[in-house]
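hiii so um. not sure if this is the right channel but i have a protein structure encoded as tokens and i wanna go backwards to a sequence. like what aa goes where. can anyone help
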């Protein structure tokens, strides 16, 4: 009983920040993302009758403690559905380096969910698979469907799922990630989501998110980059305003982060098709039209404090590589 599955990472255009139910990862607001083609996690799950505990190896490192418990709890859900008590061996590789400024929990839990469900013979629909992935990491729900993806906030487990609004080939956008810091962040997303409500700005951000999302969906569907750029930057700035005003405050930016934001704005004012968005870290995702990539890359590399630039373009949904039952 073994399966290997892969899933891309994704970058949120309208952000997920804060939960209405932390245990179920029911988000405070709906979000919208784009899968990042070329950046993926490949995971093999093998249920074995000779194991007394789950084992997991990620990028050749054996997991222990809380990280292993998170994987094990995620497998429990599929085991319960399948009526299986066997423990599993999980082997996972990211094809992008850890700490490269690209979130790995989204691709990791999407690939783990597909591999575990398939190895156990569960026939889950894409929607069910997305709800399952959400339990492991909220943003993983969005790495299951293809291309541009909306995660409906929902009101319970079954209604909080992600679906594609347009496939990857609808619009080729390029994400140039300006790597400013590869350091492990002090406060990760899971802890950050718990702080969101302590900011007086969170209620305003959450109340206005559905309207921003609806407009951003229209911008994607009509391939209107100017409109997309304005909304993506506004939404990222609003999330960081919440982060920076929570108790305790979370300030993820470093001086080069701000330098990149200002450069991106100046370039767009010159007519270059680029906008920025920033997750829970210092690195800046610069979304570009293909025609802007060479110029933006050169500009980013010229900024002091930008160590490298990584590139990904619109990618597809999670896929199965092999099954042995
Ligand atoms: C800032 O999905 O990483 O990247 O559910 O606790 O694993 P957990 O959180 P996670 O949160 C992502 C936060 C974000 C914004 C986004 O991707 O929407």
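sure thing!! here u go:
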């Amino acid at each position: 009983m073994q399966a290997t599955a892969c899933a891309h990472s994704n970058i949120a255009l309208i952000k997920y920040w804060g939960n209405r139910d932390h245990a179920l990862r029911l988000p405070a607001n709906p979000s919208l993302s784009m899968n990042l083609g070329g950046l993926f996690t490949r995971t093999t799950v093998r249920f074995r009758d000779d194991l007394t505990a789950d084992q997991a190896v990620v990028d050749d490192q054996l997991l222990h403690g809380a990280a292993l418990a998170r994987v094990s709890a995620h497998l429990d859900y599929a085991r319960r559905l399948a009526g299986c008590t066997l423990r599993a061996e999980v082997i996972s590789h990211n094809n992008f380096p850890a700490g490269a400024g690209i979130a790995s929990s989204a691709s990791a839990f999407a690939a783990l969910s597909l591999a575990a469900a398939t190895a156990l013979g569960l026939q889950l629909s894409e929607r069910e698979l997305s709800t399952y992935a959400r339990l492991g990491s909220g943003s993983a729900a969005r790495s299951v469907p293809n291309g541009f993806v909306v995660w409906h906030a929902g009101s319970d487990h079954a209604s909080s799922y992600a679906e594609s609004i347009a496939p990857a080939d609808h619009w080729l956008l390029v994400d140039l990630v300006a790597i400013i810091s590869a350091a492990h962040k002090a406060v990760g997303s899971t802890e950050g989501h718990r702080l969101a409500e302590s900011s007086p700005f969170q209620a305003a951000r959450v109340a206005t998110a559905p309207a921003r999302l609806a407009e951003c969906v229209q911008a994607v569907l009509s391939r209107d980059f100017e409109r997309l750029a304005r909304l993506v930057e506004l939404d990222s700035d609003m999330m960081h305003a919440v982060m920076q005003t929570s108790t305790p405050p979370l300030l993820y930016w470093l001086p080069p982060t701000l330098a990149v934001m200002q450069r991106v704005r100046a370039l767009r004012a010159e007519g270059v098709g680029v906008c920025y968005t920033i997750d829970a870290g210092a690195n800046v995702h610069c979304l570009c039209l293909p025609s802007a990539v060479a110029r933006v890359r050169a500009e980013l590399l010229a900024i002091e404090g930008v160590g490298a630039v990584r590139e990904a373009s619109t990618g597809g949904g999670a896929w199965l590589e092999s099954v042995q039952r």
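oh and The chain has two domains: 2-169, 174-314.
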